[in-house]
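for the recovery benchmark. tokens below, seq after
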């Protein structure tokens, strides 16, 4: 017998070990002319190097890793910023707008799903 807290910790440890044993994530995420070098923290759009803030990088990486799937604002706030999912913030919209500006001709790859969130189109 053990406490509920210990049970939760054990389950999390098992899930973490299971996730670590899976296939390694790709080091370069590509879609069209968008190339995100994960270990190098570099973004290239076409032949141009595009500077990103750390937060913009994390946001784009997450969207590209989950390409084709809608990500709600609350999920993005939780996964990128570490905020509680019940926080209502327009910071996601602001960062998406900045990312679109930086993606230039590829800006339409980040699609707004009205009333739901955002999706990266592969």
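predicted aa per position
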């Amino acid at each position: 017998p053990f406490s509920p807290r210990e049970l939760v910790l054990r389950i999390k440890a098992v899930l973490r070990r299971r996730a670590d044993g899976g296939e390694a994530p790709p080091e370069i995420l590509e879609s069209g002319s968008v190339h995100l070098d994960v270990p190098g923290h570099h973004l290239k759009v076409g032949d141009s190097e595009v500077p990103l803030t750390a937060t913009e990088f994390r946001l784009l990486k997450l969207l590209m890793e989950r390409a084709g799937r809608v990500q709600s604002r609350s999920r993005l706030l939780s996964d990128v910023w570490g905020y509680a999912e019940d926080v209502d913030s327009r910071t996601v919209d602001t960062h998406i707008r900045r990312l679109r500006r930086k993606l230039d001709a590829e800006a339409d790859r980040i699609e707004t799903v009205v009333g739901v969130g955002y999706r990266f189109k592969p």
